[in-house]
Amino acid sequence: MGAFSIWHWAIVLLIIGVPVFFAVRSATKPSQNPDSLVGFGGWLMLLAIGQALSPFRTLGELFSSSEGYRQLMPLPNGPLAVCGEIVLLLAFALLQVVVLFAMLRRSPSFKRLFLYQWIAIPVVFILDAVWTSTVLGVPMSQVLARDALVAPIASFVVTGIWVAYVYKSVRVRNTFGGLAVGQVTAA
């Protein structure tokens, strides 16, 4: 595989930077009537769609790994390694569903749960890598072969951007039980 050229970095910057710029700008831009920013609209709608799809993405990742699982099964401790990874991914998918239901119920705990989900991305990846390496008795460098870090890092960065939005947005604050800007000054 060749090196990442300057054009690749420019494209990555555009793909990540432009949406981040607009999300941060719209989240921090004061509205004419902040109390009217309630419900699933604007950027929050995109977050809601992404959150609704996230458990399916995790389950899709699980099913796409089935060929790799078949290759691991005949190895000593292979079934244990496979079961451990399946349990980790199912636990993460369950967390994603819990976050989704908190969001749909407009629970005040949504913001905190969304933060936990973000933190769980590297935790699940690290636990999986350590588990697989330990159970199979192979070096970590072999477990992390190829581009194993790309997807978790990208997922962590993109979700981190959404976490920043969730904690800055007036719409999110109003929708999930926080005081609106007008209510803060009146109190």
Measured as a percent range, the helix fraction is: over 70%
User: Could you say which structural class the secondary elements and strand pairing correspond to?
Assistant: mainly alpha
The overall strand count is 0
End-to-end gap: 60 Å
How would you briefly describe this protein structure?
Helix 4 (78-104) packs antiparallel against helix 5 and helix 5 (110-136) runs antiparallel to helix 7.
How would you describe what is shown here?
The chain is mainly alpha-helical and 187 residues long. It has one domain. The protein contains nine helices and no strands. Helix 1 runs parallel beside helix 7, helix 2 runs antiparallel to helix 4 and helix 5 packs antiparallel against helix 7. The radius of gyration is 20 Å and the shape is globular.
SSE diagram, text form:
Layout: H1 6-28, H2 42-64, H3 66-72, H4 78-104, H5 110-136, H6 140-143, H7 150-168, H8 170-175, H9 181-186
Helix pairs in contact: 1-7, 2-4, 4-5, 5-7
Give the key terms.
187 residues, mainly alpha, 9 helices, disordered C terminus, DUF2569 family protein, transmembrane
